[in-house]
Amino acid sequence: MMQITNDDKAKRVYIGDDYYRDSVTIVNRGIEMFYQKVLTILTCLDLSNNSFHGRIPEEIQMLRSLRVMNLSNNGFSGEIPFAFENLKDLESLDLSRNKLSGKIPAQLTSLTFLAGLNLSYNQLEGSIPQSNQFITFTNDSYRGNPKLCGLPLSRKCNEVGLPMPPPPGEDEDSWLYALSTWKIALIGYASGLVVGLCIGYTALNELGNKWVDKFKKCGKRNRRRCR
């Protein structure tokens, strides 16, 4: 897997030709394929359906002749290694059903031979790269990642997840602003009430004085005529 020379590729020898016949069943691009005799140019790493956990080791970039890699149905966590960009011959990559998080590295767009990609049912987030082979992959490659956004998904990047929390201090500022507004309204209401009472008192006092003056004048005259 680490290196195959041009001479090795030209021979197209089969493993086990001289002594025994090797056969293997490989899941390639989502299809289970049975190889009765294994070519040396078929470089495949299938560690699916195990209990591996932790980060995917960066040393995997040393397998530069790798064409098929299947690490699905494990417990791998952390981010997808940027080192995958060194696997230039990679044609199929299956990292589904793990616990991978973070964004899909933009470096993976340099894998121009990549024809099959499955990143479904992880914890990936952010926008999906939009160049080279990535524009050919369908929704099935990304399903089960609720925080992923962008084409081919119908979910736009500004619609992902819950509303963003306000910046630190924004809640406090909003509370202080509401309190200040409430105080201003209360002061205005109280001031208006005081002014209204003063005006009302003055008007009633003037009206009362007029009735008193009129009553006094009528007392001096004939009160019956004043009625």
UniProtKB/TrEMBL annotation:
Keyword annotations of the record: Cell membrane, Glycoprotein, Leucine-rich repeat, Membrane, Receptor, Repeat, Transmembrane, Transmembrane helix
InterPro entries registered for this protein in UniProt: Leu-rich_rpt, LRR_dom_sf
Record's subcellular location: Cell membrane
Top-level division of the source organism's lineage: Eukaryota
TM spans (from-to): 184-204
Coiled-coil annotated residue ranges, if any: none
Record's bilayer topology term: Single-pass type I membrane protein
SUPFAM superfamilies given in the database record: L domain-like (SSF52058)
Pfam family, one: LRR_1
Family indicated by similarity: Belongs to the RLP family.
The name this protein goes by in its record: Receptor-like protein 33
Source species of the chain: Gossypium hirsutum
Gene designation per UniProt: LOC121214458
